[in-house]
Amino acid sequence: MCQKESEIKQNPSHFEGTDEELEMSKTIQADFMDYVKGMKFFDPHIHMTSRTTDDYTALVDAGVVAIIEPAFWLGQPRTGLSSFKDYYSSLVGWERFRSSQFGIKHYCTIGLNSREANNEALAEEVMEILPLFLYKEGVVGVGEIGFDDQTAAEEKYYRQQLELSKEAGLPVQVHTPHRDKKKGTELSMSIALEHGIDPGMVIIDHNNEETVESVLDKGFWAAFTIYPFTKMGNERMVELVKKYGSQRIMINSAADWGISDPLAVPKTAALMKIRGISDEAIKMVCYQNAIDAFAQSGQINVADFETPQEIDQSLKFNGNTVLRGGQIPRVDKNSIFIS
Amino acid sequence: MNVKDNLFEVIKTNASQKELNWIETKATSSLQSLQTAFVATTRFVSKTSVNTFEKLKGINFNTWNLDKLVRSYFLVCLDVADEVSYTKTLNTLFETAENNEAVALISSLALLEHPENWLLRATDAVRSNIGIVFDAIAFENPYPQEFFSELAWNQLVLKCIFNDKSIHKIQGLDDRANKELAISVSNLAHERWAAGRTIPPQAWRLVTNFLDETIFEDIKKVFDSEDYKNQLAAALVCKNSGFLPAKNELKKHIELEQKVKDLSWSFLEV
Ligand SMILES: [Zn+2]
């Protein structure tokens, strides 16, 4: 659903960066975490359903305190309403619980994704149950919705969901297409405006250099997905922040079932720090802007993740609290003994 | 007063005027609208804790928050005249429930019309790995005591012990103690001992009335434990049991016998 498509380009076998980058690669510290110690991060787009507990552990270690999991497609089309219902339920149920075990506050956006909007018979049924989920606690937006192939059916359900967002007073998280991105992005924005939606309530996702200017000019939020092997690597992200500043810009990992990096936000923060971007700007792009945008839902209470939460003992899982005194039990991957 | 009016009285003393207005409008609306209101409750009602001495059908609302109480109230407001619609509405709520909604539903089971019809939802909650959902059926909930079969009851209690949860918060714990459960507790202890671990001391209370030659061997072993609380547990079992060899065994442990004279299981409740 997210940034990459089939054209995954593997790591180049030799260094292709600038001289300056080559120099930096020799001098920077081995551990990127050294650069972002004490910083807090908010990843507003990550599909934890597809990730393991190792990833949750890594997120905690890197300072990610809260996340938003948008509803998306699962890699293959669902064939019935119950699959959608169970998926949405899992976002506000099991996955939310799993995340809480690591002390990470889990929010989600709920919507019918563009790909599956093309199965109109099923889409009609899904539209009927969406309101039931949109009003749930911790649902911070309608998302991720928008265009993929830019078909008539996609447009139809995009429009209907924009109306739902207005009714529920929720922000909209818009997925922009891989192919013909610029046109799809412009279309998404003009339709939102046509429906009388305040651009300040809309987060346009998966931007690049070609789309960002128009998005910011029109008053929308511009989100960037940092995804390995694709066009938007984090070095270019740093350049973008240098050029456009830190207002209404946010980054995310969009980590999912594809090759992706759940640590994209803290890693990019580290790179920004190395490249001389101010701590204040880093905080805006990697934390505050996402909160400001999605807190318009009325569903984000920053105290839930800014003050370290005592993990409720009732959240014990199979007799173990994952977090005990703030410590996550570690699995020693190198040990042959499992105890 | 019926349950509905009782609940509303408690809500009245805990909600703001603005909250009350919203609640009253919704309470008298259609099934569909009530269903949405149940979901949207936290958007209009705060999560302040409830102050009340009221206890209804064995439910102690003092440990509840206002949003949970209001959700429970909406459930008893559902029109029961059309049983098909009533059942369908509740099924939808169960199947789409967010975690806090699930807790409100499970905690309110005893207040529903024909509560026995919701047994599968209750036992599903026992199967849940989500802590708060499991706790909602296990603790301070009158439903299991009244409606669970022995098998379901034993699963509930064993899962609590297995997960080191506080079994004394299960309503009817001593009343529904049974031989099968006592054997299971003994088996669990053997498994734990094999792994170099133990069961929580208070779990032994469940064997008190079902001591036989076999389980009595366990109790002797618990007496020999190096942990004082385990020794006390063994002594309490013997003190309260009618099994003669147990009575005699306790006399061999003079200090413990003295100690448990004025002691009840509440001392070991954690
Ligand atoms: Zn996505």
Largest sheet of chain A: 8 strands, parallel
Q: What is the first-to-last residue Cα distance of chain A?
A: 38 Å
Strand line-up in the sheet with most strands of chain A: 1-2-3-4-5-6-7-8
Please give the CATH architecture of chain A.
Alpha-Beta Barrel
> What percentage of residues of chain B falls in helices of 4 or more residues?
55-70%
What's the CATH H-level superfamily name of chain A?
Metal-dependent hydrolases
List segments of chain A where confidence is low: pLDDT < 50 over at least 5 consecutive residues. Answer: 3-16, 313-326
Residue-averaged pLDDT of chain A: 87
Which two chains have the most extensive interface, and how many residues on each? A-B, 24 and 24 residues
* CATH domain class of chain A: Alpha Beta
List how many beta strands of chain B DSSP finds.
2
Number of domains of chain A: 1
Q: Which ions, cofactors or small ligands are bound in this entry?
A: zinc ion
Approximate shape of chain A = globular
Number of helices of chain A: 12
Q: For the CA atoms, what is the radius of gyration of chain B?
A: 22 Å
Name the assembly state: heterodimer
Helix content of chain A: 25-40%
What does this structure look like?
The complex is a heterodimer of chains A (339) and B (270). Chain A has 339 residues and is α/β, with parallel strands linked by helices. Chain A has one domain (38-309): Metal-dependent hydrolases (TIM Barrel, Alpha-Beta Barrel), CATH 3.20.20.140. Helix content of chain A is 39%, strand content 12%. Chain A has twelve helices and eight strands. Chain A has helices at 19-27, 53-62, 81-92, 94-100, 120-134, 152-168, 181-194, 212-217, 234-244, 264-274, 279-294, 303-306, and strands spanning 41-43, 64-70, 105-110, 139-146, 172-175, 202-204, 221-225, 249-252. Chain A has an eight-stranded parallel beta sheet with strand order 1-2-3-4-5-6-7-8. Chain A starts with 18 loop residues before the first helix and ends in a 33-residue tail after the last helix. Chain B has 270 residues and is an all-alpha fold. Chain B has two domains: 3-148, no CATH class; 179-268. Chain B has 15 helices and two strands. Chain B has helices spanning 3-14, 17-27, 31-44, 66-77, 83-95, 99-107, 119-127, 131-138, 143-147, 150-162, 179-194, 213-223, 228-240, 244-251, 254-260; strands at 55-56, 59-60. In chain B, strand 1 (55-56) and strand 2 form a beta hairpin. The radius of gyration of chain B is 22 Å and the shape is elongated. The chains are: A alpha/beta (339), B mainly alpha (270). The A-B interface holds A 85, 88-89, 92-94, 96-97, 129, 131-133, 135-138, 298, 312, 314-319 and B 35-36, 39-40, 42-43, 92, 95-102, 129-132, 135, 162-165. Bound molecules: zinc ion. Residues 1-2, 45, 47, 70, 72, 144, 254, 256 of chain A line the site of zinc ion (ZN).
